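LOG
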Amino acid sequence: MKLVMAIVKPFKLEAVREALTELGIQGLTVTEVKGYGRQKGHTEIYRGAEYAVSFLPKVKIEVAVASELAEKAVDAIARAAKTGQIGDGKIFVYSIENAVRIRTGETDADAL
């Protein structure tokens, strides 16, 4: 089992969700986050005053999948989230040792 975590631009959330749904992936967790990568933020002008925006709004998507689906999930997220602009985000893949569905007690792949 793998945990695929993606940090993407907020307006790409729906496209990513649809891409994962097409793969048959059910359930994901979404968190609103702030951060920066290589660009280290940017400057904006508001009412004539320039100010630095150090942390940019992003969305963190986490989805647990069977190991066989991990690569397809990464490809789907990358295609759906890509704008070609700086700040498109990153995707990380972690191994999951075990999982338990609390309601039924199902474990590992059955719990997904």
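LOG (cont.) second protein
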Amino acid sequence: MTNDLADRGVDLEVNQRLRKTLALILAGGRGSRLMDLTDWHAKPAIPFAGKFRIIDFALSNCINSGIRRIGVLTQYKAHSLLQHIQRGWGFLRGEFNEFIELLPAQQRTEGGNWYRGTADAVYQNLDIIRAHRPEHVLILAGDHVYKMNYGRMLAQHLASKADVSVACIAVPREIASGFGVMAINADNHIVRFDEKPADPAPMPGHPDLALASMGIYIFNASLLFDLLEKDSSFAGSSHDFGKDLIPSLIATHRVVAHHFSDSCVMHDGAQEHYWRDVGTIDAYWEANVDLTKVTPSLNLYDDSWPIWTDQPQVPPAKFVFDSDDRRGMAVDSLLAGGCIISGAVVRRSMLFSNVRVNSYCLVEDSVVLPGCDIGRHARLTKCIVDQGVVVPPGLVVGEDPEIDARRFYRTEKGITLITAAKLKALENGEA
């Protein structure tokens, strides 16, 4: 950030503008690449890091940044997401003009369509958004894990007199085709924007990297309203911010790139500007297991930038039995409240609330979601165990790739997803 943005006068202005900013979190996607994990839950509602939900990161970033007017747009199988927000995020005070407003798809516009794209989701709630009279609208995805001070992004937006600001991050070119990819000039103005290109353009001087959109946008509100009105009636549009609205502005408006490195919230000694799209089984497993390291890139212990969530009322984790062949222990692991490790061994694993691991079990390099019960003598390696699954005694997963692939979904990187449906098929002799 430049020195003028650090000036106290600008800080006061930014704080005032933050109070007049409305954040909209797009949380309606299914997240089909997470396979059975999203059969009954929208991706933003999936548990992450032992006690949180994915959407808690975007919501916490808003609260910690000073944005306390928030709308959450939902659509796909939203019950657990709505329930989580109602239970865990009801602490804002309406009399202070603070709120988290739930905006499920309601077929509110002429034609009675469900949300047809990210821009259409906002358009269908345009009357509600206008009623809040925002000066700026911050558009966020509800399915990424990161810590970001949106106030710094707004400060740059104001200083550069931008019409639209787009947060960006450098990613390897081999994965950039899954993002919007941009080119910028020396003033950080975006001169080209391609949504999910087959051959992403490299960054100058960095042939292995591409500059990718994070799906985080700040719009001047009046411009956004006009754009959405025009886009809604354009038959050739897919009604998406990345595919339609942002590219259409490049030649006619000031569209500015905001580098994530300028607003990423990092702990002392951190080397990485942490941002994760946990939209695949491999990425979800890796992001959870990474947190078991001695010093992970994502700091969950930072009191200055806490992650808020719904707190289940459960007892502390418990470890029982201490004989040589039956010792309840966990090493290099994170365990949430309500877990009982009963004469079993857990290594390099993430266990969510109310997981029971029974005697003589071995759980290694695994992610076990809330409410699971792992039967005696089971051995699980590099697994994700879905919510509420009862693992039968003696089940062995993660030691024979061919057997695992016949019985469960197994990724090319060797992560096995254990679900109740697959276990039932196995019990019935169908696997």
